[in-house]
Amino acid sequence: MEGDSRMAERYDLIVIGTGPGGYVCAIKAAQLGLKTAVVEKRSTLGGTCLNIGCIPSKALLHASEIFADASHSLPQLGVDVGEPKLDLAKMMAHKDATVTSNVEGVAFLMKKNKIDVYTGTGKILGESKVSVKAGRSKAQELEATNIVIATGSDVAGIPGVDLEFDEKTIVTSTGALELPKVPEHLVVVGGGVIGLELGSVWARLGAEVTVVEYLDKILGPMDADVSRQFQRMLAKQGMTFKTGAKVTAVQKTDKGALVTFRPVAGGDAETISADAVLVATGRKPYTEGLGLETTGVVMDGHGRVHIDEHFKTNIHGIYAIGDVVAGPMLAHKAEDEGVAVAEILAGQAGHVNYNVIPSVVYTQPEVASIGKTEEELKADGVDYKVGKFPFSANGRARAMLHQEGFVKILADKHSDRVLGVHIVGYGAGEMIHEAAVLMEFGGSAEDLARTCHAHPTMSEAVKEAALGAFQKTIHM
Protein backbone atom coordinates (compact mmCIF):
# COMPACT_ATOMS: atom_id res chain seq x y z
CA MET A 1 0.00 0.00 0.00
CA GLU A 2 1.25 3.41 -0.82
CA GLY A 3 0.93 6.38 1.50
CA ASP A 4 -2.15 7.80 3.25
CA SER A 5 -1.94 10.81 0.96
CA ARG A 6 -4.24 8.94 -1.42
CA MET A 7 -7.03 8.55 1.14
CA ALA A 8 -8.90 11.62 -0.07
CA GLU A 9 -8.66 10.62 -3.71
CA ARG A 10 -11.74 9.54 -5.59
CA TYR A 11 -11.48 7.05 -8.40
CA ASP A 12 -13.57 6.45 -11.46
CA LEU A 13 -13.15 2.73 -10.83
CA ILE A 14 -11.99 0.44 -8.05
CA VAL A 15 -11.51 -3.22 -8.94
CA ILE A 16 -11.52 -5.70 -6.05
CA GLY A 17 -9.33 -8.66 -6.99
CA THR A 18 -6.41 -8.81 -9.42
CA GLY A 19 -6.85 -12.17 -11.09
CA PRO A 20 -7.00 -12.21 -14.91
CA GLY A 21 -10.45 -10.59 -14.91
CA GLY A 22 -9.59 -7.90 -12.35
CA TYR A 23 -6.20 -6.79 -13.58
CA VAL A 24 -7.25 -6.83 -17.25
CA CYS A 25 -10.33 -4.78 -16.36
CA ALA A 26 -8.16 -2.26 -14.53
CA ILE A 27 -5.66 -1.97 -17.38
CA LYS A 28 -8.36 -1.50 -20.01
CA ALA A 29 -10.14 1.10 -17.86
CA ALA A 30 -6.91 3.03 -17.37
CA GLN A 31 -6.20 2.88 -21.11
CA LEU A 32 -9.64 4.38 -21.71
CA GLY A 33 -8.88 7.31 -19.43
CA LEU A 34 -10.52 6.20 -16.17
CA LYS A 35 -8.71 6.90 -12.92
CA THR A 36 -8.35 3.38 -11.57
CA ALA A 37 -7.27 1.51 -8.44
CA VAL A 38 -7.14 -2.17 -7.56
CA VAL A 39 -7.46 -3.91 -4.20
CA GLU A 40 -5.69 -7.23 -3.67
CA LYS A 41 -5.52 -9.31 -0.49
CA ARG A 42 -2.40 -11.21 -1.59
CA SER A 43 1.04 -9.67 -1.42
CA THR A 44 1.39 -10.41 -5.14
CA LEU A 45 -0.96 -9.64 -8.01
CA GLY A 46 -2.46 -12.10 -10.46
CA GLY A 47 -4.97 -13.94 -8.28
CA THR A 48 -5.36 -17.70 -8.12
CA CYS A 49 -4.49 -18.12 -11.81
CA LEU A 50 -1.00 -16.66 -11.75
CA ASN A 51 -0.07 -17.57 -8.17
CA ILE A 52 -1.49 -21.02 -7.45
CA GLY A 53 -3.46 -22.09 -10.51
CA CYS A 54 -3.12 -21.79 -14.29
CA ILE A 55 0.49 -20.66 -14.50
CA PRO A 56 2.28 -22.92 -11.97
CA SER A 57 0.28 -25.94 -13.12
CA LYS A 58 1.32 -25.34 -16.74
CA ALA A 59 4.95 -25.10 -15.67
CA LEU A 60 4.72 -28.51 -14.00
CA LEU A 61 2.71 -29.97 -16.86
CA HIS A 62 5.37 -28.95 -19.36
CA ALA A 63 8.29 -30.10 -17.20
CA SER A 64 6.69 -33.46 -16.42
CA GLU A 65 5.86 -33.91 -20.11
CA ILE A 66 9.53 -33.43 -21.01
CA PHE A 67 10.45 -35.97 -18.32
CA ALA A 68 7.96 -38.48 -19.74
CA ASP A 69 9.20 -37.87 -23.29
CA ALA A 70 12.77 -38.55 -22.19
CA SER A 71 11.59 -41.83 -20.70
CA HIS A 72 9.37 -43.06 -23.55
CA SER A 73 9.40 -41.00 -26.76
CA LEU A 74 13.01 -39.97 -27.32
CA PRO A 75 14.36 -43.53 -27.83
CA GLN A 76 11.82 -44.05 -30.64
CA LEU A 77 13.23 -40.97 -32.34
CA GLY A 78 16.80 -42.23 -32.11
CA VAL A 79 17.77 -40.05 -29.15
CA ASP A 80 19.30 -42.17 -26.40
CA VAL A 81 19.81 -40.17 -23.21
CA GLY A 82 19.65 -43.09 -20.83
CA GLU A 83 17.30 -43.33 -17.87
CA PRO A 84 16.24 -39.79 -16.91
CA LYS A 85 16.59 -38.75 -13.27
CA LEU A 86 14.00 -36.57 -11.60
CA ASP A 87 15.19 -33.51 -9.69
CA LEU A 88 11.86 -32.50 -8.17
CA ALA A 89 13.33 -29.56 -6.29
CA LYS A 90 14.67 -28.07 -9.52
CA MET A 91 11.35 -28.69 -11.27
CA MET A 92 9.56 -26.87 -8.46
CA ALA A 93 12.10 -24.04 -8.70
CA HIS A 94 11.21 -23.69 -12.40
CA LYS A 95 7.54 -23.48 -11.44
CA ASP A 96 8.22 -20.83 -8.79
CA ALA A 97 10.39 -18.78 -11.14
CA THR A 98 7.61 -18.87 -13.74
CA VAL A 99 5.10 -17.59 -11.18
CA THR A 100 7.45 -14.82 -10.04
CA SER A 101 8.04 -13.66 -13.59
CA ASN A 102 4.33 -13.48 -14.31
CA VAL A 103 3.24 -11.68 -11.14
CA GLU A 104 6.09 -9.20 -11.50
CA GLY A 105 4.89 -8.60 -15.04
CA VAL A 106 1.42 -7.70 -13.79
CA ALA A 107 2.90 -5.35 -11.16
CA PHE A 108 4.86 -3.64 -13.94
CA LEU A 109 1.67 -3.23 -15.98
CA MET A 110 -0.02 -1.55 -13.01
CA LYS A 111 2.77 1.01 -12.81
CA LYS A 112 2.89 1.46 -16.57
CA ASN A 113 -0.83 2.25 -16.67
CA LYS A 114 -0.70 4.45 -13.53
CA ILE A 115 -3.07 2.20 -11.59
CA ASP A 116 -2.96 2.55 -7.80
CA VAL A 117 -2.53 -0.75 -5.95
CA TYR A 118 -3.88 -1.26 -2.43
CA THR A 119 -2.83 -4.40 -0.60
CA GLY A 120 -5.41 -5.75 1.83
CA THR A 121 -8.90 -7.20 2.06
CA GLY A 122 -11.49 -5.14 0.25
CA LYS A 123 -15.00 -4.61 1.61
CA ILE A 124 -17.79 -2.68 -0.07
CA LEU A 125 -19.36 -0.16 2.29
CA GLY A 126 -21.94 1.24 -0.10
CA GLU A 127 -22.53 2.39 -3.65
CA SER A 128 -19.26 4.28 -3.84
CA LYS A 129 -17.09 3.26 -0.91
CA VAL A 130 -14.56 0.49 -0.37
CA SER A 131 -12.53 -0.17 2.75
CA VAL A 132 -9.13 -1.85 2.61
CA LYS A 133 -7.90 -3.71 5.68
CA ALA A 134 -4.31 -4.97 5.81
CA GLY A 135 -3.42 -7.07 8.84
CA ARG A 136 -3.89 -5.20 12.13
CA SER A 137 -3.63 -1.76 10.60
CA LYS A 138 -6.60 0.58 10.53
CA ALA A 139 -8.91 0.13 7.54
CA GLN A 140 -8.50 2.71 4.80
CA GLU A 141 -11.56 4.05 3.00
CA LEU A 142 -11.57 4.70 -0.74
CA GLU A 143 -14.22 6.27 -2.92
CA ALA A 144 -15.11 5.45 -6.50
CA THR A 145 -17.87 6.18 -8.97
CA ASN A 146 -17.86 2.50 -9.95
CA ILE A 147 -16.76 -0.73 -8.25
CA VAL A 148 -16.06 -4.04 -10.00
CA ILE A 149 -16.10 -7.26 -8.00
CA ALA A 150 -13.51 -9.64 -9.45
CA THR A 151 -12.69 -11.81 -6.44
CA GLY A 152 -12.65 -15.13 -8.27
CA SER A 153 -13.42 -18.51 -6.77
CA ASP A 154 -12.31 -20.87 -4.02
CA VAL A 155 -11.99 -24.63 -3.72
CA ALA A 156 -15.25 -26.53 -3.32
CA GLY A 157 -15.29 -29.53 -1.03
CA ILE A 158 -17.17 -32.82 -1.29
CA PRO A 159 -20.87 -32.50 -0.45
CA GLY A 160 -21.66 -34.30 2.81
CA VAL A 161 -18.03 -35.12 3.57
CA ASP A 162 -16.00 -33.47 6.34
CA LEU A 163 -12.55 -32.64 5.01
CA GLU A 164 -9.44 -31.50 6.83
CA PHE A 165 -7.19 -29.93 4.23
CA ASP A 166 -3.62 -29.92 5.52
CA GLU A 167 -2.16 -29.39 2.00
CA LYS A 168 0.23 -32.28 2.68
CA THR A 169 -1.89 -35.43 2.74
CA ILE A 170 -5.38 -34.14 1.92
CA VAL A 171 -4.73 -31.39 -0.56
CA THR A 172 -6.43 -28.89 -2.83
CA SER A 173 -4.87 -27.88 -6.12
CA THR A 174 -2.63 -25.55 -4.11
CA GLY A 175 -1.09 -28.40 -2.15
CA ALA A 176 -0.87 -30.59 -5.24
CA LEU A 177 1.47 -28.00 -6.75
CA GLU A 178 3.78 -28.19 -3.71
CA LEU A 179 4.13 -31.89 -2.87
CA PRO A 180 7.70 -32.41 -1.58
CA LYS A 181 8.02 -35.86 -3.13
CA VAL A 182 6.25 -38.03 -5.67
CA PRO A 183 3.49 -39.95 -3.87
CA GLU A 184 3.41 -43.69 -4.43
CA HIS A 185 -0.37 -43.55 -4.77
CA LEU A 186 -2.33 -40.36 -5.44
CA VAL A 187 -6.12 -40.49 -5.32
CA VAL A 188 -7.83 -37.68 -7.21
CA VAL A 189 -11.42 -36.96 -6.24
CA GLY A 190 -12.98 -35.39 -9.32
CA GLY A 191 -12.40 -36.16 -12.99
CA GLY A 192 -12.61 -32.60 -14.23
CA VAL A 193 -9.93 -30.36 -15.72
CA ILE A 194 -7.98 -29.61 -12.53
CA GLY A 195 -7.96 -33.19 -11.29
CA LEU A 196 -6.85 -34.64 -14.62
CA GLU A 197 -4.14 -32.02 -15.20
CA LEU A 198 -2.55 -32.37 -11.78
CA GLY A 199 -3.13 -36.11 -11.73
CA SER A 200 -1.27 -36.43 -15.02
CA VAL A 201 1.67 -34.40 -13.66
CA TRP A 202 2.27 -36.84 -10.82
CA ALA A 203 1.50 -39.88 -12.97
CA ARG A 204 4.25 -38.84 -15.39
CA LEU A 205 6.66 -38.47 -12.50
CA GLY A 206 5.99 -42.00 -11.27
CA ALA A 207 2.90 -41.96 -9.05
CA GLU A 208 0.10 -44.47 -9.28
CA VAL A 209 -2.97 -42.30 -9.86
CA THR A 210 -6.60 -43.27 -9.25
CA VAL A 211 -9.37 -40.87 -10.27
CA VAL A 212 -12.74 -41.17 -8.52
CA GLU A 213 -15.51 -39.36 -10.43
CA TYR A 214 -19.18 -38.97 -9.47
CA LEU A 215 -20.42 -38.86 -13.07
CA ASP A 216 -20.25 -41.83 -15.42
CA LYS A 217 -17.65 -40.03 -17.53
CA ILE A 218 -14.72 -37.69 -17.05
CA LEU A 219 -14.66 -34.03 -18.12
CA GLY A 220 -18.29 -33.45 -17.18
CA PRO A 221 -19.89 -31.25 -19.88
CA MET A 222 -17.34 -32.05 -22.60
CA ASP A 223 -18.46 -33.87 -25.74
CA ALA A 224 -19.02 -37.54 -24.79
CA ASP A 225 -17.09 -38.80 -27.83
CA VAL A 226 -14.05 -36.80 -26.74
CA SER A 227 -14.45 -37.86 -23.13
CA ARG A 228 -14.54 -41.58 -23.94
CA GLN A 229 -11.45 -41.58 -26.15
CA PHE A 230 -9.55 -39.29 -23.79
CA GLN A 231 -10.20 -41.57 -20.84
CA ARG A 232 -8.84 -44.50 -22.84
CA MET A 233 -5.70 -42.47 -23.60
CA LEU A 234 -5.11 -41.63 -19.95
CA ALA A 235 -5.73 -45.25 -18.97
CA LYS A 236 -3.02 -46.28 -21.44
CA GLN A 237 -0.71 -43.88 -19.61
CA GLY A 238 -1.40 -45.77 -16.37
CA MET A 239 -4.17 -43.78 -14.71
CA THR A 240 -7.04 -45.76 -13.14
CA PHE A 241 -10.63 -44.51 -13.20
CA LYS A 242 -13.55 -45.18 -10.89
CA THR A 243 -16.49 -43.43 -12.56
CA GLY A 244 -20.07 -43.29 -11.32
CA ALA A 245 -18.65 -43.31 -7.80
CA LYS A 246 -19.64 -41.12 -4.85
CA VAL A 247 -16.95 -40.43 -2.23
CA THR A 248 -18.42 -40.80 1.25
CA ALA A 249 -15.34 -40.35 3.44
CA VAL A 250 -11.72 -39.20 3.33
CA GLN A 251 -9.90 -40.16 6.51
CA LYS A 252 -6.31 -39.35 7.44
CA THR A 253 -4.11 -42.18 8.74
CA ASP A 254 -0.55 -42.45 10.04
CA LYS A 255 0.62 -43.45 6.56
CA GLY A 256 -1.61 -41.24 4.42
CA ALA A 257 -5.36 -41.40 3.92
CA LEU A 258 -8.25 -43.73 3.22
CA VAL A 259 -10.83 -42.84 0.59
CA THR A 260 -14.21 -44.55 0.74
CA PHE A 261 -16.67 -44.45 -2.14
CA ARG A 262 -19.70 -46.32 -3.37
CA PRO A 263 -21.41 -46.68 -6.76
CA VAL A 264 -23.85 -43.86 -7.46
CA ALA A 265 -26.24 -46.46 -8.91
CA GLY A 266 -26.11 -48.44 -5.67
CA GLY A 267 -23.86 -51.18 -4.39
CA ASP A 268 -21.13 -51.96 -1.89
CA ALA A 269 -18.66 -49.36 -0.70
CA GLU A 270 -14.95 -49.61 -1.53
CA THR A 271 -12.03 -48.16 0.39
CA ILE A 272 -8.58 -47.48 -1.06
CA SER A 273 -5.48 -46.14 0.63
CA ALA A 274 -3.34 -43.30 -0.68
CA ASP A 275 -0.22 -41.37 0.22
CA ALA A 276 -2.03 -38.19 -0.83
CA VAL A 277 -5.58 -37.26 -1.81
CA LEU A 278 -6.28 -34.38 -4.19
CA VAL A 279 -9.83 -33.04 -3.87
CA ALA A 280 -10.65 -31.44 -7.22
CA THR A 281 -14.43 -31.35 -7.22
CA GLY A 282 -14.76 -27.90 -8.70
CA ARG A 283 -14.73 -24.35 -7.39
CA LYS A 284 -17.22 -21.97 -5.80
CA PRO A 285 -17.53 -18.17 -6.06
CA TYR A 286 -15.47 -16.29 -3.48
CA THR A 287 -17.55 -13.54 -1.91
CA GLU A 288 -16.59 -13.89 1.74
CA GLY A 289 -16.07 -10.63 3.63
CA LEU A 290 -17.06 -8.41 0.69
CA GLY A 291 -19.99 -6.89 2.55
CA LEU A 292 -22.48 -7.91 -0.12
CA GLU A 293 -25.19 -8.77 2.38
CA THR A 294 -25.10 -5.40 4.11
CA THR A 295 -24.74 -3.58 0.79
CA GLY A 296 -27.79 -5.41 -0.55
CA VAL A 297 -26.18 -6.97 -3.62
CA VAL A 298 -28.44 -9.77 -4.87
CA MET A 299 -26.97 -13.27 -5.21
CA ASP A 300 -28.33 -16.17 -7.24
CA GLY A 301 -29.11 -19.66 -5.99
CA HIS A 302 -25.55 -20.84 -6.57
CA GLY A 303 -23.81 -18.25 -4.42
CA ARG A 304 -22.87 -16.12 -7.43
CA VAL A 305 -23.35 -12.38 -7.79
CA HIS A 306 -26.40 -11.69 -9.94
CA ILE A 307 -25.74 -9.30 -12.84
CA ASP A 308 -27.60 -8.04 -15.89
CA GLU A 309 -26.38 -8.23 -19.49
CA HIS A 310 -24.07 -5.27 -18.80
CA PHE A 311 -22.40 -6.90 -15.76
CA LYS A 312 -24.25 -4.58 -13.40
CA THR A 313 -25.61 -5.74 -10.04
CA ASN A 314 -28.84 -4.44 -8.57
CA ILE A 315 -26.88 -1.72 -6.74
CA HIS A 316 -25.99 1.39 -8.72
CA GLY A 317 -22.29 1.58 -9.62
CA ILE A 318 -21.43 -1.99 -8.56
CA TYR A 319 -20.48 -4.53 -11.21
CA ALA A 320 -19.13 -8.10 -11.15
CA ILE A 321 -17.14 -10.32 -13.52
CA GLY A 322 -15.32 -13.64 -13.67
CA ASP A 323 -15.80 -16.63 -11.39
CA VAL A 324 -18.16 -14.79 -9.03
CA VAL A 325 -20.83 -14.58 -11.77
CA ALA A 326 -22.53 -17.16 -13.97
CA GLY A 327 -20.68 -18.86 -16.80
CA PRO A 328 -17.60 -21.03 -17.18
CA MET A 329 -14.90 -20.45 -14.56
CA LEU A 330 -12.17 -19.68 -17.07
CA ALA A 331 -9.48 -17.02 -16.90
CA HIS A 332 -9.99 -15.90 -20.49
CA LYS A 333 -13.75 -15.58 -19.98
CA ALA A 334 -13.00 -13.30 -17.01
CA GLU A 335 -10.52 -11.28 -19.09
CA ASP A 336 -13.07 -10.68 -21.84
CA GLU A 337 -15.64 -9.63 -19.26
CA GLY A 338 -13.08 -7.29 -17.70
CA VAL A 339 -12.48 -5.58 -21.03
CA ALA A 340 -16.20 -5.38 -21.76
CA VAL A 341 -17.16 -3.79 -18.43
CA ALA A 342 -14.30 -1.28 -18.70
CA GLU A 343 -15.55 -0.29 -22.15
CA ILE A 344 -19.11 0.06 -20.84
CA LEU A 345 -17.93 2.31 -17.99
CA ALA A 346 -16.07 4.43 -20.53
CA GLY A 347 -19.23 4.88 -22.59
CA GLN A 348 -18.45 2.26 -25.20
CA ALA A 349 -20.32 -0.92 -26.18
CA GLY A 350 -18.54 -3.76 -24.40
CA HIS A 351 -19.76 -7.26 -25.19
CA VAL A 352 -18.79 -10.92 -24.67
CA ASN A 353 -19.90 -13.70 -27.03
CA TYR A 354 -20.45 -16.58 -24.61
CA ASN A 355 -21.08 -19.00 -27.48
CA VAL A 356 -17.46 -18.74 -28.59
CA ILE A 357 -15.33 -19.34 -25.50
CA PRO A 358 -12.72 -22.09 -25.89
CA SER A 359 -11.99 -24.56 -23.14
CA VAL A 360 -8.69 -26.46 -22.90
CA VAL A 361 -7.39 -29.35 -20.81
CA TYR A 362 -3.59 -29.06 -20.74
CA THR A 363 -2.78 -32.73 -20.36
CA GLN A 364 -0.90 -34.72 -22.98
CA PRO A 365 -2.62 -35.09 -25.33
CA GLU A 366 -4.56 -31.87 -24.88
CA VAL A 367 -8.31 -31.54 -25.15
CA ALA A 368 -9.90 -28.41 -26.61
CA SER A 369 -13.52 -27.53 -27.18
CA ILE A 370 -15.59 -24.60 -28.35
CA GLY A 371 -19.29 -24.17 -28.98
CA LYS A 372 -21.90 -26.90 -28.75
CA THR A 373 -21.41 -30.60 -28.06
CA GLU A 374 -23.34 -33.30 -29.87
CA GLU A 375 -25.36 -33.92 -26.72
CA GLU A 376 -26.38 -30.25 -26.53
CA LEU A 377 -27.37 -30.12 -30.20
CA LYS A 378 -29.50 -33.24 -29.83
CA ALA A 379 -31.16 -31.81 -26.72
CA ASP A 380 -31.89 -28.57 -28.62
CA GLY A 381 -33.36 -30.48 -31.57
CA VAL A 382 -30.82 -29.06 -34.03
CA ASP A 383 -30.22 -30.86 -37.33
CA TYR A 384 -26.45 -31.12 -37.59
CA LYS A 385 -23.73 -32.93 -39.49
CA VAL A 386 -20.38 -34.23 -38.26
CA GLY A 387 -16.94 -34.03 -39.83
CA LYS A 388 -14.27 -36.07 -38.09
CA PHE A 389 -10.61 -36.66 -38.88
CA PRO A 390 -8.05 -38.70 -36.87
CA PHE A 391 -4.49 -37.55 -36.28
CA SER A 392 -3.38 -41.08 -37.20
CA ALA A 393 -4.00 -40.02 -40.82
CA ASN A 394 -2.00 -36.80 -40.49
CA GLY A 395 1.57 -36.83 -41.80
CA ARG A 396 3.00 -34.31 -39.31
CA ALA A 397 1.43 -36.19 -36.40
CA ARG A 398 3.06 -39.41 -37.54
CA ALA A 399 6.43 -37.72 -37.87
CA MET A 400 6.21 -36.43 -34.29
CA LEU A 401 4.73 -39.63 -32.78
CA HIS A 402 1.56 -37.78 -31.86
CA GLN A 403 -1.03 -39.79 -33.77
CA GLU A 404 -3.54 -40.09 -30.92
CA GLY A 405 -6.82 -38.22 -31.08
CA PHE A 406 -9.03 -36.51 -33.62
CA VAL A 407 -10.76 -33.31 -34.70
CA LYS A 408 -14.56 -33.22 -34.75
CA ILE A 409 -16.56 -30.42 -36.34
CA LEU A 410 -20.30 -29.99 -35.86
CA ALA A 411 -22.12 -27.87 -38.42
CA ASP A 412 -25.75 -26.94 -39.03
CA LYS A 413 -27.18 -29.38 -41.57
CA HIS A 414 -28.97 -26.66 -43.50
CA SER A 415 -26.81 -23.53 -43.28
CA ASP A 416 -23.42 -25.28 -42.85
CA ARG A 417 -22.59 -22.82 -40.05
CA VAL A 418 -20.08 -24.32 -37.60
CA LEU A 419 -21.71 -24.83 -34.20
CA GLY A 420 -18.99 -26.66 -32.29
CA VAL A 421 -15.43 -27.94 -32.63
CA HIS A 422 -13.81 -30.56 -30.41
CA ILE A 423 -10.18 -31.64 -30.57
CA VAL A 424 -8.26 -34.22 -28.59
CA GLY A 425 -4.61 -34.45 -29.57
CA TYR A 426 -1.19 -32.85 -29.42
CA GLY A 427 -1.43 -29.05 -29.60
CA ALA A 428 -5.24 -29.02 -29.43
CA GLY A 429 -5.16 -25.89 -27.26
CA GLU A 430 -3.46 -23.94 -30.04
CA MET A 431 -5.48 -25.37 -32.93
CA ILE A 432 -8.85 -24.52 -31.38
CA HIS A 433 -8.39 -20.82 -32.08
CA GLU A 434 -8.89 -21.00 -35.83
CA ALA A 435 -12.28 -22.47 -34.97
CA ALA A 436 -12.86 -19.58 -32.56
CA VAL A 437 -12.15 -16.98 -35.25
CA LEU A 438 -14.33 -18.83 -37.76
CA MET A 439 -17.26 -19.09 -35.34
CA GLU A 440 -16.91 -15.48 -34.17
CA PHE A 441 -17.62 -14.42 -37.75
CA GLY A 442 -20.39 -16.99 -38.28
CA GLY A 443 -18.29 -19.07 -40.66
CA SER A 444 -19.26 -22.35 -42.29
CA ALA A 445 -17.55 -25.72 -42.59
CA GLU A 446 -17.05 -24.92 -46.27
CA ASP A 447 -15.27 -21.66 -45.37
CA LEU A 448 -12.82 -23.60 -43.23
CA ALA A 449 -12.46 -26.47 -45.69
CA ARG A 450 -11.59 -24.07 -48.51
CA THR A 451 -9.01 -22.18 -46.44
CA CYS A 452 -5.51 -23.23 -47.48
CA HIS A 453 -3.57 -24.85 -44.62
CA ALA A 454 0.20 -25.28 -44.66
CA HIS A 455 1.53 -28.79 -45.22
CA PRO A 456 2.63 -30.67 -43.25
CA THR A 457 0.94 -29.39 -40.09
CA MET A 458 -1.26 -30.79 -37.36
CA SER A 459 -3.80 -28.12 -38.29
CA GLU A 460 -4.49 -29.87 -41.59
CA ALA A 461 -6.60 -32.25 -39.51
CA VAL A 462 -8.90 -29.31 -38.76
CA LYS A 463 -9.29 -28.61 -42.47
CA GLU A 464 -9.94 -32.29 -43.17
CA ALA A 465 -12.62 -32.46 -40.47
CA ALA A 466 -14.26 -29.41 -42.05
CA LEU A 467 -14.12 -31.18 -45.42
CA GLY A 468 -15.80 -34.15 -43.77
CA ALA A 469 -18.66 -31.95 -42.60
CA PHE A 470 -18.91 -30.07 -45.90
CA GLN A 471 -18.32 -32.87 -48.42
CA LYS A 472 -15.73 -35.66 -47.95
CA THR A 473 -12.26 -35.83 -46.48
CA ILE A 474 -9.31 -36.23 -48.85
CA HIS A 475 -6.77 -38.14 -46.79
CA MET A 476 -8.98 -40.81 -45.30
Task: Explain what this protein looks like in three dimensions.
There is one protein chain. The protein is globular, with a radius of gyration of 24 Å. The strands form 5 sheets. Strands 1, 2, 3, 4, 5, 6 and 17 form a 7-stranded mixed beta sheet that branches. It has a 5-stranded parallel beta sheet with strand order 8-15-9-10-11. The chain has 14 helices and 22 strands. It is of the alpha/beta class and 476 residues long.
What keyword list fits this structure?
alpha/beta; seven-stranded mixed sheet; five-stranded parallel sheet; 476 residues; disordered N terminus; single chain
Alpha-carbon Rg, integer: 24 Å
- Structure classification: alpha/beta
Q: What is the strand content?
A: 15-25%
**Could you give the count of β-strands?**
22
Largest sheet: 7 strands, mixed
Uncertain ranges: 1-6
In whole angstroms, the N-to-C terminal distance is 62 Å
Return the average pLDDT rounded to an integer.
96
Helix fraction bin: 25-40%
Dominant shape: globular
Q: Helix segment count?
A: 14
